[in-house]
Amino acid sequence: MLDTSVRLLKLLSLLQVRREWSGADLASRLEVTTRTVRNDIERLRIMGYEVESTTGPAGGYRLGAGSALPPLLLDDDEAVAVVLGLRAAAAGSVTGIEETSLRALAKLERTLPSRLRHRLDALRSATASAAGVGARVDAATLTEIAAAAHRHERLRFDYVGHEGASSVRTVEPHQLVYTGRRWYLLAWDVGRGDWRTFRADRIRPRIPTGPRFEPRQPPGGDAVAHVLRGVGSQAYRHQARVRLDAPVEVVTDKITAMGGLVTVLDDGSCLLQTGGDSWHDLAGYLGSLGVGFEVLDPPELRTHLRELSERYAAASAPPQGERTG
Length: 325
Prior knowledge:
The protein is α+β, with helices and mostly antiparallel strands and 325 residues long. Helix content is 43%, strand content 23%. It has helices at 4-17, 23-30, 34-46, 76-90, 98-111, 114-126, 139-151, 223-234, 248-252, 279-288, 299-316, 320-324, and strands spanning 50-54, 60-64, 94-95, 137-138, 155-160, 166-178, 183-189, 194-199, 203-206, 238-244, 261-266, 269-276, 293-297. A hairpin with a 5-residue loop joins strand 5 and strand 6 (166-178). The longest helix is centred in the last third of the chain and has 18 residues, at 299-316. It is elongated and about 100 Å long. It starts with a helix and ends with a helix.
């Protein structure tokens, strides 16, 4: 028979891998009697584990959520995933969790067997992180937004726009999206009657939250894709609206999620809302799509394209000797 402490660890491991066990199945796995299983279940409860039990022919045991966090058992892959996640959190874009992430990381790494430390050391030496290049957002802000979205409650907040102007917004929060640089909130803006994407680092929630709402279907049925397409233009210094002379099905194969937001105009054309760090970069990007286009705005982009066309026309003319010969 296994030592009691070893048997308890094995019992706990079994409870974590299946939703429900019968007493007979647990007794068979542990090679003990059902009475010993009942006694071991009581020991786990004393240690803080919430083990639920039901009686009868269909009865059994299941591990539930308790009022306190007991020790966890992780397999190798789970332990590596948790360590990597804690390292990312310690150097990531959410403020206020760095110290707690480091404390948890130190506790976990002290208990790792050597085989796992070698795997993590190899990952650490072979990878680099660009975390922290984007704006940082307070953890409490993310928590309040996420809670309102989960409860389907309207959220009021102060928001600082792209140009620095402040406003009070009332929204039906749908989902938080992390792009790798920034956190964004996709929400239905009640005052504007449309979907809007907000940078989470510019949000200051007002408490309490508002009444409950019936969740809406996000644009295109995919909140992440919609946010990525939208911030693909808003993240740049210069924005533009361009009519593309191609069906939307053709254009979406050429444009990545961060390349801009594409919407249908008619069967043979679509609207692209995109951006660039300079007019020159933006003109080059539009030319690389390989379809005809018309710049709707801004006029500065049209001016730059005219200058480029004159420059390209001059460059494509025959050399001076060929023209006079």
